Amino acid sequence: MRSNFKANATATLQVLTEEQIKRLLAGAMEILERTGAVYHDEESLEILKKAGCYVDGNRVRIPGKLVEKALRSVPSRVTLYNSRTGKKEMEMGGNNSFFGPGSDTPFTIDPYTGNRIPASRKTVAMASRVVDALPNMDFMMSLGIVQDVPPQIYDRYQFQSMVLNTSKPIVITAIDRPGYFDIIEMCEFIAGGEEELKKYPFLTLYAEPISPLQHANDAAQKLVLAGKKSLPVVYTPCIMAGGTVPATLAGAMVTGLAESLSGLVLNQETNEGNPFIMGGVFTVMDMQTTIFSYGAPEFNLMMAALGDVSNYLDLPMFGTCGCSDSKLVDEQACIEGAMSILTTTLSGGNLNHDVGYIEHGNCSSLEYLCICDDLAGYARRITRGIEVNRETLALDVIDKVGPGGNFLMEPHTFDYYKKETYYPPLFERHFYENWEKAGKKSLFDRSHERVMDILDNYKPDPLPKEAVDKMEEIIERAANKILK
């Protein structure tokens, strides 16, 4: 760990040396030139061929100069806004860290019953309200795949459930290009038009390649559409060391980087300067269970190393943290969540998702989300570092109080104790007797109470009725077209 006092007085973590970063990037470019990647979309193949790539069927080999061109043109900052006010909410770049849930768990823990149930419009709406209320959750992903609607159009319903219940920026998923197009149309109406959404986007698409080195038809089409619409896009490999990529961490990372850069080239060749967020979920295949591990130390190590690469490239990064392989919200979940949140924040991940995941991404928990909200506050306090100046050194106050005194009643203490000290809402610091009188509640008990209080009493800012009606119209149109 080192302290970057000169730039911004924050604590940071660096895993890779500059030489290692350069070798990884050189390796990724060699993969793209020598091995290439497969694209299954015809329009994408035409765009890449016109740009100067070597196209053989659907195998595309990308010259290093095109990767370098894309890296020069892509913005180093991506900003997302509030869907109700148009106010800037998140400026991603540098070491600015933001947190939110993930999107794709098929199950969730019902906070009313404690049962593991399929995700639905209702559970996504509940999660959105909780995220809207939590101070350290900055953006919304659905925290579940909606399963109580026709699967061909679930993405429209999923977005609707989110945007009705939070004004914070939203990271969406879309089944295919038509689904993404419909969601963009909804957002354009909410924002006040196509140009207004371009200026003040409150959404970004999350799409991913198929490891190793494949871009499915739908994924490539969404990258192209994001470029044509001038909207931010997250393109993030989900790699398993020893399964979909080499078992060595360097081999895993270089493959994932090649996949991310090959998506960047397509996006930038579609629209030079389009906002693009790199990143990934880089972890291992657990050879004892075959799971995609969210709690492995190698997961934290590779994500931190990916932060080093994104900082070197000066690109915003899609990070992953606040997640666990545990099947319930227990000590394992809290340890794995704390480790990943702190590591990701120290390493400079910007758009950090999957907070609230348990069961290696198969299930989610609102109680765990709330606990991780406190952990994100911890991490933010640590990375804020220690400010050293004449006022914070407090030399005059020390001289005034003198040996044997105390600082409790000093104005300096009143001015600084809240600025300097983080007070987590859920973590217990009372004397034993007071904790006992309050019911001997565990961390999970306190988190559950917080979730229920939000669900029962918190109301997000509403959307205008005409926006609500427009979403219904677009969803009905999609249903009539796709399901007939």
Short key terms for the protein model shown above:
484 residues, 14% strand, alpha/beta, 7-stranded parallel beta sheet, globular, 4-stranded mixed beta sheet, 2 domains, TIM Barrel, 18 helices, single chain
Can you tell me about this structure?
With 484 residues, the chain is α/β, with parallel strands linked by helices. It has 2 domains: 72-384, Trimethylamine methyltransferase-like (TIM Barrel, Alpha-Beta Barrel); 390-420, no CATH class. The chain contains 18 helices and 21 strands. Mean pLDDT is 95; it is low at 1-8.
What CATH architecture label of the largest domain applies?
A: Alpha-Beta Barrel
Radius of gyration: 23 Å
Q: Give the CATH class of the largest domain.
A: Alpha Beta
Overall number of structural domains = 2
Portion of residues in helices?
40-55%
Question: Which secondary-structure class do the elements indicate?
Answer: alpha/beta
Query: How would you write the strand order of the largest sheet?
Result: 8-19-18-16-14-12-11
State the CATH topology of the largest domain: TIM Barrel
Total beta strands: 21
Q: Largest sheet at a glance?
A: 7 strands, parallel
Terminal-residue CA separation: 58 Å
